[in-house]
Specification:
The complex is a heterodimer of chains A (about 290) and B (about 170). With about 290 residues, chain A is of the alpha+beta class. Helices cover about 35% and strands about 30% of the residues of chain A. Chain A contains 4 helices and 12 strands, in the order H-H-H-E-E-E-E-E-E-E-E-E-E-E-E-H. In chain A, strands 1-2-5-4-3-12 form a 6-stranded antiparallel barrel. Chain A has a 6-stranded antiparallel β-barrel with strand order 6-7-8-11-10-9. With about 170 residues, chain B is mainly alpha-helical. The chains are: A alpha+beta (about 290), B mainly alpha (about 170).
């Protein structure tokens, strides 16, 4: 059998392993920003992906539409039934909005944590190895995207921006949430209960809302929204619905399982959410 | 013109991985099983066979690094593995007769090695807590299955294309 590695090559291999370990160590640090070569590479590949991906998406979209057609009748029936509900709801929302504006004017409080500017973005790529569910979207720092911004679909929260490069950014989906990326949320009720989204239970396909005080009363079917406390998330983005409440492993706090409103896997078009209150603060700073 | 054919093929294989995962219907199967396309790796093995290990190593390193930067944000992992696998494939292939079945099995072996290696790294840095049985059941065999199907369809055209590129390069 011929020798697989020569002496020189063995040393080369060992040196590469050392460099590999160093590089992994470097990328594991929680970084505020990617280095500029990384951003450049990301943007370039993103552009190529867009070039190849658009036709593929068109074909896939067409096939999906064809399969959707089969359910059209049933869906139509359901939607018609919902339409009346919707009209009533809209009237109520309108009156509440007006009231809110009036009260705000009374208090002379112009901005709230709730207001946000959406940045429309399209998914142009996905991490193929899926050890972390991340997607690449076609808007970046040049369009005002920053790290940790919330990413939503019309149904609800789906993820947060992991890194923003100049023209593309990487979005970490909620289904890949880890301990370092908690999201502050609250359970809507007579008394709002605050907690942190700590992770994702892939077996139940539900989010885990932890750090809930043991005496807090939370029932099933209550809604969970972002709290807007800490970070750059606005207040009141819908996340999901409570399905189960149980004490945590030490019995000191409670853990709530939350069924997300949005499909955390099937994302095509998303909105990146920029809080208005941050935007105005920034403008004020720039004016100075 | 001829110079650009091989890089173009490499880019096509590289980008198609991400696109396939993106347009894959996101049903229960997608959530339960992890079908990871490794088209570029297959391209790399074939390239090592046709153009020699050294040139394939260069491609492996560059595209591996792209993979790290763009997708996983864990630098070095794929660059290292792709380069090493290209080197290994170049070496091993000298001992065998080149035929269809050997190439098929070699490519699948490369996929299995790469995926186990990435699993090992993820385990090491604590990004996963899957025991090996779960990794095998939910990730490795679906991945092998997908890539086997890809090989059945595309091994022959890819081979022919590469042989053609090699011939035209030799003529020049």
């Amino acid at each position: 059998m011929p020798q697989f590695f020569g002496n020189k090559r063995l040393i080369f291999l060992l040196v590469s392993i050392v460099i590999l370990v160093m590089l992994i160590g470097f990328s594991l640090r929680s970084r505020e920003e990617l280095t500029w070569p990384e951003q450049f590479v990301k943007d370039t590949v993103g552009f190529v992906q867009l070039l190849f991906g658009k036709p593929a998406q068109v074909v896939a979209g067409f096939l999906e539409n064809v399969s959707d057609l089969r359910h059209t009748y049933e869906e139509n029936q359901l939607l018609k039934a919902r339409l009346e509900e919707y009209a009533a709801l809209q009237a109520e929302v309108e009156s509440l909005r007006q009231e809110n504006e009036r009260l705000r004017a009374l208090l002379d409080k112009k901005e709230s944590l709730r207001d946000f500017i959406p940045i429309q973005a399209t998914v142009i790529g996905r991490n193929p190895d899926r050890w972390r569910e991340t997607v690449i979207v076609n808007k970046g720092a040049q369009h005002g995207v920053k790290k940790d911004m919330a990413v939503i679909t019309p149904a609800g929260l789906v993820g947060k921006v992991q890194h923003a490069s100049q023209f593309t950014s990487t979005v970490q989906l909620l289904s890949a949430l880890d301990q370092n990326n908690r999201i502050s949320a609250y359970v809507q009720g007579n008394e709002n209960v605050f907690g942190l989204i700590e992770g994702y239970d892939s077996k139940r396909r539900e989010l885990i809302l932890g750090e809930i005080p043991i005496d807090a009363k939370v029932k099933e079917k209550q809604k969970v929204l972002t709290s807007g406390l800490g970070g750059v998330f606005p207040k009141g983005l819908p996340i999901g619905e409570v399905t189960e409440v149980k004490p945590d492993q030490y019995g000191l706090t409670q853990v709530i399982y939350v069924k997300p409103f949005a499909n955390l896997y099937d994302v095509d078009d998303v909105m990146i959410v920029k809080r208005t209150i941050d935007a105005t603060l920034q403008e004020e700073e720039e004016a100075k | 013109m001829n110079k650009w054919r091989l890089p173009f093929l490499a880019v096509l294989c590289f980008v198609s991985e991400s696109i396939l995962v993106d347009v894959w219907p996101k049903g229960d199967v997608y959530i339960r099983y992890f079908f990871v396309p490794r088209f570029f790796l297959i391209f790399l093995v074939l390239m090592a066979v046709h153009f020699g290990g050294t040139r394939a190593m260069g491609y492996g390193f560059i595209f591996g690094f792209l993979y790290d930067v763009v997708y996983t944000e864990l630098l070095g992992v794929y660059a290292f593995a792709y380069a090493l696998i290209a080197y290994g494939a170049g070496k091993v292939m000298r001992w065998f007769h080149q035929n269809w079945l050997v190439l098929f099995l070699m490519s699948l072996l490369a996929v299995a090695v790469l995926d186990s290696y990435v699993y090992g790294i993820q385990l090491l840095i604590g990004r996963t807590d899957w025991p090996f049985a779960v990794f095998w059941g939910r990730r490795l065999w679906p991945t092998l299955l997908l890539n086997a199907v890809f090989l059945l369809v595309f091994l022959h055209p890819l081979e022919r294309w590469m042989a053609k590129i090699r011939r035209s390069e030799q003529e020049e």
